[in-house]
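My convention is simple: the sequence line spells out the residues, with the fold written below as integer tokens. I include a record here:
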Amino acid sequence: MRCRRSYRRPHKSRFVEMFESASSKTWESKPVEEICELIADCPHTTAQDEGVGYPLVRTPNIGKGRLIYDKMHRVSEKVYNLRNKRAVPRERDLILAREAPAGNIAVIQKEEKVCLGQRTVLLRPRLAVIDSEYMAYRILSEKVQRAILDYSSGSTVAHLNVREIRKLKLPIPPLALQREFAAFVAKVDKLAFAVRKSLESAEKLYRQQLSEAFA
């Protein structure tokens, strides 16, 4: 399922409802370096758009929860392998933008085979500790986004380095609660996909009938 503009209202509302209550203050917070089994920075080189091939995730392609495929650059298999030399992104990994804008994050979905552009970081959460969807929306929460801005204070452009990402602390609620939220996200995404397909079919039928009417 391709993306789709993000930090969608139902997701954000449910996140606040489930994780911003008074009880959340009792949850232990842990740094990203403890809740991830892998933190891999991107290659510090620019890959040229080849027009076809594997998606190259640049910071404009990282939305709020999902990847944005509009204007996604493409690269060859050779470039894909070179850029993924440190780690190959896989389902349920997260890609975080370190700049422009710092703090956007997307969860890699099934069948998304991508490589990292500049100023991005790959995070692989320990799924026995933290769910990917919860982690993404926690990083997108107001409190964590403010912390990211604080790291960037004094800079002309908001920027995160890998050391700061490692130290970023996130509250860890019970895993069952995290998974309940992830199930809600999946349900809403499935519904949105069905609605989008229905609209596309309706538009196609309309254009066909319009064409026939003026033939």
Notes: Confidence is low (pLDDT under 50) at residues 1-7.
